Amino acid sequence: MEAKSVYVSSNCNQTPTGADCNENHLLAYGSCHAVLIYDLNAARVVQTLIGHTKRVNSVRWIRGSDGELVSGASDGCVVVWEPQGGAHARFILPAGGPTVNIVDGWSCNGRTIIAGAAMEPGVVRIWTRDAPGGEFHPSETCRIGRSLCMGLRLGGSATSPLLACALEDSKILLLTETDRQVWIKGSVLSGHEDWVRGLDFALNGQGELLLASSSQDSTVDRHNKYIEF
C-alpha cells in the first residue's frame, strides 16, 4: 500500500511574540523547540530551524539585515540565525537566565544589535556585532529596576541607538547608547493602564523619531516629544 502526505500542521507556540513577518512575506514562528519559516505566497513552511532545546518564546526578524532572525527560548539562550546557501548558520548567545521571554534585533550600517530579556526581574542583556558575518560579543547587562521586561524594541540611528523596554508596571523605559558603547537610562514614558505588548519605532516626514506602543488596556499611544534623537 502506498501512502503519501496530504496535510501537515505545526502550531505556533502560545506566546505574545512567538511570530514575526518580514517585508518578503516570510512568517517566522516558534513551534515547540524549533523556528519555522512560512512563505505566505507559497502557503507552506519552507524551512525548519533546529537549535533550541526547549520551547521557543520569542522570534523576531532582524530589521535592516539580509534575512537574519533572532529567537529566544526556555533553554536560556538567544540564537541568531544567519542565512547561508539555503540553510541557516546559528550563533548561540547565553542569556544567563533559565528562560528568555523576549528578544529583538536591529542592524544599521553593518552593525547589528541584539537585545534579550530573561525571566529575571530588572535585567536586559545586549550583544553587538560590528560587521556582517562576524562574531557577536556581549555588550552590556542593563539593570532596569525591579520590573520584568514585557517587551523590547530597538531603533534610532547608527550614531544614536535606542532600546525601548516595556515594564510590568505599564511604563516604558528608554535606554540610550553613548559614544563609549555604554547603555544608560533615559526617559520613562507613562500613559498605559495595563501591560504594554507592542512597541515600534518610525520616522515621520520631518525626520523625527516616533515610538508607538500598544497595550492590553486596548489603547495605542504615540510618543514623540519625549524622545531625544
Automatic annotation (TrEMBL):
Cited PROSITE patterns: WD_REPEATS_2, WD_REPEATS_REGION
WD repeats (start-end): 49-82
Localization annotation: Cytoplasm; Nucleus
Pathway in which this enzyme or protein is active: tRNA modification; 5-methoxycarbonylmethyl-2-thiouridine-tRNA biosynthesis
Keywords: Cytoplasm, Nucleus, Repeat, tRNA processing, WD repeat
A GO CC annotation given for this chain: nucleus
Gene Ontology terms describing biological process: tRNA wobble uridine modification
PANTHER family: ELONGATOR COMPLEX PROTEIN 2
Family: Belongs to the WD repeat ELP2 family.
Protein name per its UniProtKB record: Elongator complex protein 2
